[in-house]
Amino acid sequence: MIRKFSILDIDRIMQLWLDANLDVHYFINKSYWLNHYEMVKQMILDADIYVYEINYKVLGFIGIVDNYIAGIFVDKTYRCQNVGHQLINYIKKDHKYLILSVYQKNQKAVNFYIKEKFKIIKEQIDLDTNEVELVMEYNHKRIESK
């Protein structure tokens, strides 16, 4: 089930955020994520967050600000089990245009977004990490016109 975030979810959300970042962004120093923990926790309160849960356990979430997907995070044991796909589709119902940034080295995520009909529109350097990011967009009108 997908539902809107509740403040009661914050600890679980932050654990998913930290665990996923440490796991998939192995190329970025652990201290980067630890140093940004409190800032991200505050930002989550200002974003639209939707959680995916089974039996009252949050297994993943998606964060969106306007049309920008700030991130999708899924419990490691539930990755590749359609959780991310369901979260993206949930957001697509209300957003015909979406944009996001993903590290180029996170190839599994890049492939996931391509499968979800996102297109790479540019490359840039994340000045905080010095890593290449891909900016990707989903445009329902572009897809419909094909």
TrEMBL record:
GO terms for molecular function: acyltransferase activity, transferring groups other than amino-acyl groups. Residues 1-141 form the N-acetyltransferase domain. Gene3D superfamilies: 3.40.630.30. Keywords: Transferase. This is Putative acetyltransferase. InterPro entries: Acyl_CoA_acyltransferase, GNAT_dom. It comes from the Bacteria. Pfam families: Acetyltransf_7 (PF13508).
